[in-house]
Amino acid sequence: MRKITIAILILSSLFIFPIFSLVRSDENIPDELSGTSDFSKVDAYIAREMKRQHLPGLALGIVKGDRILYLKGYGQADSSGRLVTPDTPFGLGSIGKSITATAVLQLAENGKIDLDAPIKRYIPTKYKGAEFITIRQLLNQTSGFSQISTFSNSLASINDPDQDALEKNAMSYAKKFLKDTKQTEHTYRYSNANYVLLGYIVQRVSGQSYGDYVKEHIFNPLSMHDSYVTLDEAKVHGLATPYRRIFGSNAAYDGPYIYIPGDAPAGYLYTSAKDMSHYLIAQINGGRFEDVSVLSPEGIRLMQTEPVPGTYAMGWMTGHIDGLPVIGQPGGSIGFQAQTYIVPEQQLGVIVFANVLDAIDADWPNTHIITTTRIASGVINLLNEQPIGGLGLSISQKYLLVNGLIILLSAWLLYTTARTAKRCLGPSSPDNSGHIEISIKVISRIVLNFAGLFIVLILNTTQVVPVWHIATIYQPDVILWLKTMTVLMAMKGSMEIIRLIRSNWHDKTSK
User: Fold this and answer.
1) pLDDT, tens digit, for every residue of 382-408?
2) In this structure, what DSSP letter does residue 39 have?
3) Which of 377, 392, 407 is the last residue of a domain?
4) Which residue, 451, 146, 425, 104, is CA-closest to 265?
5) CA neighbor of 478 nearest in space, from 490, 488, 492, 468
6) Whole-model pTM above 0.70?
7) Do 406 and 375 have their domain in common?
8) Pair 98, 341: CB distance under 8 Å
9) Does residue 140 sit in the same domain as residue 105?
């Protein structure tokens, strides 16, 4: 009887365990990926890419229809060895723009916002441009605003209190971009300013702060319990530590600009792979997750449709992965990167988070393609039994090129500086201190040695070129090297001046 009981329990488990398995089969997913064990191919691929790209931690979510197929954390969330789990929060980056778009469309469906109304109806501003730029243009990024002009605002708003930062930043953008006095038709042009203004409009129309609105009307209904609207909240609940790369090695970062409260609606929200899977399910299923709907099917369809192919929908962009139509969005902020994709014809969604980012993670000149973009594409190819495709250069290979160039240029500059020092500081002789004609060529060479240091001082102490400060944050190793080289060149220039003075003094004393 005991043997029979054990046999019954074993047989029962064979039927019960698949029911509770996180990975579920579906006729549109290849048979090899219909069971838990088959995701070992995905696990192996992720492990290989984490090693190639030196990723400290990564989180993956895969959804199909109204179900989660697979959730897993890989690697470490911080230097203590804490493991990444599907509940670990990461920075969402620009993927958060679709959350802002969802909030705007919710208010539109409730009759509180007219998508084709000029933004002056919702923003108190005297600038003429607010009279003809519409909410829809902000959503589709066809307002004419530029991205590079937003960097100075991002840098300036870091110290603003959370409750005031969004309003202050939005009104600053209004002053900067709404001065046009005539209506102009603009094509797609990506800019964070569009979504900062939209977030401020959500705040004014709803009567709640942007963060409170998102929590009440999006995060809570979608059971996104590990999603946060401020850095402090996310840190308290186990936010993965952000890392930057320093000459190829990962270094934890806890400095400024991890969180810019004035830019929150454009890319400073925090969420987990599990929570983002809930969000993707709603995006795939006409706004519905389980028994809750956050947006109508028509609203979701509008969100995901570009006004002109190859432009921008509302928080989403279209593309192809090996010929397969997808919609998606990369996201990046200091120390965090993410990529999400939806394959509409398969009702398939993928989200990938990682907790390291610098400029070298991007493909050049296609800077919207980052490490997590390639990994998410590879996962979709695996799920469709397709070759993973071009993996691109690994971080080691990229830094081999960058560091090799740095070493060569540094060696050349050190050699020329040492040679100048020898001529300048060595004993007087015809070779060292012979007459040097003061000419335009000589003066130009000296000036050129000081030019780099002068330029760097201006860039560091002013906001003339805000992108310099952004580069200092995202690629500190290369910027540090550039600063060091400019100091070395200035030293070389100083020695050239000394050598010029000595040569002419020697010439006079000889006579």
Assistant:
1) 999 998 876 778 999 999 999 999 999
2) G
3) 392
4) 104
5) 468
6) yes
7) no
8) no
9) yes
